[in-house]
Design goal:
Layout (H helix, E strand, L loop, with lengths): L12 E7 L12 E10 L4 E12 L6 H8 L1 H10 L9 H5 L7 E10 L8 H13 L3 E6 L14 H16 L4 E4 L2 E4 L4 H24 L1
Parallel strand pairs: 4-5
Antiparallel strand pairs: 1-2, 2-3, 3-4, 5-7, 6-7
């Protein structure tokens, strides 16, 4: 949090979650689903950010690892860490770290807010709500924390780049993600931290909205 306030009432933010299904299908259409999340402001009807999630079904369609490799380099890196290269299912060490509550994988691929809405903790507030709506049927939630907006001109120095990346990782750790290996962080849908932090973040967002209204 900072002393400044966001440009609009945080209580007016909402999510529009959408999934586009191509009727013609793709080789991995039954395996990989891309879910786009628009972060909108109700009062002025404009977008202030976006998120991208992938639901990966390990038990239907083609080899899940191959589907992720075909989609993007970022997903390929995640697949190489948490999925068995031969079977396309979770590796033994990932399985051992998770309760069996589903079979799918939820990847939080990208979370982006407009610059004027950053540094208020809203990224985690919004992401945790999207996670709760998309995680049913999933056994694991994963992310690879890092800077999504590569147009950040102020991050030209490596030290500043690393500092911001560490800050982003701490934000995801605060809602229950734990470092697994390489740049991949893992979260169980049954994590008590996830549920506790959802309530805490909602309260924090309400306090921020109250401050905004008082200042307005």
């Amino acid at each position: 949090m900072t002393d400044r306030l966001p440009p609009g009432d945080p209580a007016e933010l909402y999510l529009r979650i959408s999934y586009t299904d191509a009727l013609s299908g793709t080789p991995y259409g039954d395996t990989l689903e891309r879910w786009d999340v628009a972060v909108l402001h109700a009062q002025d009807q404009f977008a202030v950010g976006s998120m991208v999630f992938y639901r990966v079904h390990l038990d239907r369609g083609m080899h899940a690892g191959h589907a992720m490799e075909d989609e993007s380099e970022d997903l390929a890196e995640i697949a190489s860490v948490i999925l068995d290269a031969e079977t396309g299912y979770f590796t033994d060490d990932v399985s051992d770290a998770l309760d069996y509550v589903g079979s799918a994988l939820l990847v939080m691929d990208r979370v982006t807010l407009d610059e004027t809405w950053r540094d208020f903790g809203l990224g985690t507030v919004l992401a945790i709500e999207a996670i709760h709506r998309l995680m049913p049927g999933c056994r694991a939630i994963v992310c690879s924390p890092g800077i999504a907006d590569i147009s950040e001109h102020r991050l030209r120095e490596r030290a500043e780049w690393d500092r911001v990346n560490r800050k982003i990782a701490r934000g995801w750790e605060s809602i229950g993600f734990r470092h697994h290996r390489d740049h991949v962080f893992l979260l169980s849908p049954t994590s008590l931290v996830l549920e506790e932090q959802r309530d805490a973040l909602r309260s924090r967002a309400a306090d921020l909205a109250a401050s905004w209204k008082a200042a307005d």
